[in-house]
Specification:
Blueprint lengths: L3 H31 L5 H21 L9 H28 L2 H7 L3 H11 L10 H22 L4 E3 L7 H8 L7 H28 L3 H23 L11 H29 L1 H5 L3 H15 L3 E2 H42 L19
Antiparallel strand pairs: 1-2
Helix pairs in contact: 1-4, 1-10, 1-12, 2-9, 2-10, 3-8, 3-9, 4-6, 4-12, 5-8, 6-13, 12-13
Length: 365
């Protein structure tokens, strides 16, 4: 179970992760409009991430890394297919056919999907007769409602920045989805959410018996690269598709590889190990609000009433999820302490100490 100080670190880590990932929506949409291949891009992205993470996995986990069994290897291949190959291809196709705002907003379905997957697989328990269980359910629903409001209700302008004329060029560079297949984009965004939720839960299961997070993610990247490379080689026959054509494409590849796939998902897998899968997905609603803020500051977009209302709902929902998780932790710590006292009392005998065994270390959620 996480201590109070470790909980603070988890909250800070997920906030940093969401800041980096929010910018990813806008940057990748610009790269897609510049013409980068949706199959070649994830190959380069994950190669960069693997180059960054593989040495860390080798040196930091050299002494504590468990033996790689056939069962673990099969799970790593599956996680690579779900979390890297399918997840990233669905995301890029969905983003290319919709918009950064929509792709960010629909990802708020991930907490609910993860919550369901975690319950079905026995990783999470919902106690509707306790306030922490009710808070987690209400928080997830409220956050999803806030993201829906941002997407569907624009409302009047509440704040409009004085945008310089040069920003119109940036706005046009991002483009829109008017000439795209919106239905295909929505289906792919939903597939992306399903894969992301499954990835979170599958990682949580594997980390319980193979607690080497850098090694897990490095192998996940490796198998994802092999799968993506096989698809890309058979599909992208034109040599020009494999070339980086501009500085913008190069920046997007390194940003996605270093910041999102490298640093970002290393943070995610660490938080999954310490805080559980629902804790991670509970922070996704913050991303939609950050995308709206970034778009306003960087691109001169206005704040509308719908965006403010949705942001308030997202913050309230996020607070409920985090508060519910905190209450669950406190209750579990109390139960563990009571059980330990009871066991020591039963073991008490003549000449024996009340504490016949050392205090057990806190277990992860």
């Amino acid at each position: 179970m996480c201590s109070a100080s470790e909980q603070t670190k988890l909250h800070l880590a997920m906030t940093i992760f969401q800041l980096g990932y929010a910018g990813n929506h806008v940057i990748l949409r610009a790269a897609l409009n510049l013409g980068i291949s949706k199959l070649v891009f994830p190959v380069y992205r994950n190669v960069i991430a693997l180059v960054l993470l593989a040495p860390l996995a080798y040196f930091l986990e050299k002494k504590e890394r468990p033996i790689l069994t056939t069962s673990v290897l099969i799970q790593l291949i599956l996680i690579g297919f779900v979390g890297i190959t399918s997840n990233q291809v669905f995301y890029l196709v969905g983003l290319d056919n919709t918009s950064p705002t929509f792709s960010s907003a629909i990802e708020n379905a991930v907490p609910a999907l993860t919550f369901v997957f975690a319950i079905l697989l026995g990783l999470e328990q919902v106690h509707f007769n306790r306030r922490d269980g009710v808070a987690k359910v209400l928080g997830t629903a409220t956050s999803f409602l806030g993201a829906t409001v941002i997407t569907l209700y624009k409302g009047p302008i509440v704040y409009g920045s004085n945008s310089p004329s040069g920003q119109s060029h940036l706005l046009s560079a991002l483009g829109d989805a008017n000439s795209k297949n919106w239905t295909l984009g929505c289906i792919c965004c939903l597939g992306h959410c399903l894969c992301w939720s499954g990835w979170i839960v599958l990682q949580a299961i594997l980390l319980k018996k193979y607690p080497a997070r850098f090694t897990v993610y490095s192998f996940t990247c490796f198998f994802g690269i092999l799968q993506l490379l096989a698809i890309a080689v058979s599909t992208e026959r034109d040599y020009q598709s494999w070339k980086i054509q501009s500085a913008g494409e190069l920046f997007s590849v390194f940003y996605a590889g270093l910041i999102v796939s490298g640093l970002g998902f290393t943070i995610q897998i660490w938080v999954i190990q310490k805080g559980g899968p629902v804790f991670v997905s509970g922070y996704l609603p913050m991303q939609t609000m950050l995308v709206a803020i970034m778009a306003s500051v960087a691109l001169g977009e206005e704040f509308h009433l719908g965006g403010i209302m949705g942001a308030v709902l997202i913050i309230v929902g996020l607070y409920l999820v985090v508060w519910g998780k905190g209450e669950e932790i406190k209750l579990a710590e109390t139960i563990d302490a009571s059980s330990l006292v009871s066991e020591n009392s039963q073991a008490k005998g003549p000449g024996k100490s009340l504490l016949v065994q050392p205090l057990l270390p806190g277990r992860d959620v």
